[in-house]
Amino acid sequence: MNKYKIVLEYDGTNYSGWQAQKNARSIQGALAEAAQKFLDTPVEIQGAGRTDAGVHALGQVAHLETNRKVHCEALRIGLNDLLPAGINILSLENAHPRFHARHSAVSRSYLYLIASRRTAFGKKYVWWVKDKLHVGKMRQALAVFEGFHDFESFADKRMDKDTSTKVDIEGIELKEFNNLLAMRISGSHFLWKMVRRIVGMTVEAGRGNVTVKDLEQMLKTFSDVPARYTAPPSGLFLEKVLYEGDHLPEIQTPIHLF
């Protein structure tokens, strides 16, 4: 078998998420369909991050296994020609037989964009918050989440019961870009809806409705409050998947319409 590492970006607005599902449009499904059509043979595709419906990616990583051997650049161009306009392969290279897009990853980073003004062009990629947010309080709130914690309060209750809710958040950063707030959260892995609920509660802190002590208590004892403040998927991007030796670049915004 031949294995290829794929780095891709996508607009998740009209998709049910990364994972292939029956009777639903998915990124994994679209990629597999294009690969099978181009290679004229069955393929296996696995992704590093299972993004939810409406969530985007700037640097999702997947691996493709096939019995066909193809020149990498020819395969990249061929797949892009067959993929919908909202999915684009940035790079494609030969991968080690033991490489696994998900299991070989050491960490992942997500980016969330919050707009402070109404926008006609960027609304699919931001969360427009009408209230004036206190950025200092938001930074204090984000600091609570850094480190190793039990994020049960921030995970969707429909998550697999065997999944551990303890997660190591390696870094959190909040940067201002004119009318945008860019929030980066990086960690070993993430639970279902966890990032969006962290963002939602951080915005509540910026509104003055939640304190640092409130958030600390939510990490100690289960609370259903975060579920009520889940940020919309539109502003969330899987920014980068890191493997051994990789480093995160300086935080930037992919949206330049503000």
User: What characterizes the major β-sheet?
Assistant: 10 strands, mixed
Order of helices and strands: EHEEHEEEHEEEHHE
What gross morphology would you assign? globular
Tally of structural domains: 2
Structural class: alpha+beta
CATH homologous superfamily title of the largest domain: Pseudouridine synthase I, catalytic domain, C-terminal subdomain
How many strand segments? 10
Instruction: Output mean pLDDT.
Output: 94
| Strand proportion | 25-35%
CATH topology name of the largest domain, in short, is Alpha-Beta Plaits
**What's the N-to-C terminus distance?**
47 Å
Radius of gyration: 19 Å
Quick summary of this structure?
By secondary structure, this protein is of the alpha+beta class.
Describe this structure in words.
- By secondary structure, the chain is of the alpha+beta class.
- It folds into two domains: 2-94, Pseudouridine synthase I, catalytic domain, N-terminal subdomain (Alpha-Beta Plaits), CATH 3.30.70.580; 107-242, Alpha-Beta Plaits (2-Layer Sandwich), CATH 3.30.70.
- Helix content is 22%, strand content 29%.
- The protein contains five helices and ten strands.
- The protein has helices at 27-39, 72-82, 135-145, 194-207, 212-220, and strands spanning 2-10, 44-47, 56-66, 87-94, 107-115, 127-128, 147-150, 166-177, 180-187, 236-242.
- Strands 1, 2, 3, 4, 5, 6, 7, 8, 9 and 10 form a ten-stranded mixed β-sheet that branches.
- Strand 2 (44-47) and strand 3 (56-66) form a beta hairpin.
- Helix 3 runs antiparallel to helix 4.
- The mean pLDDT is 94.
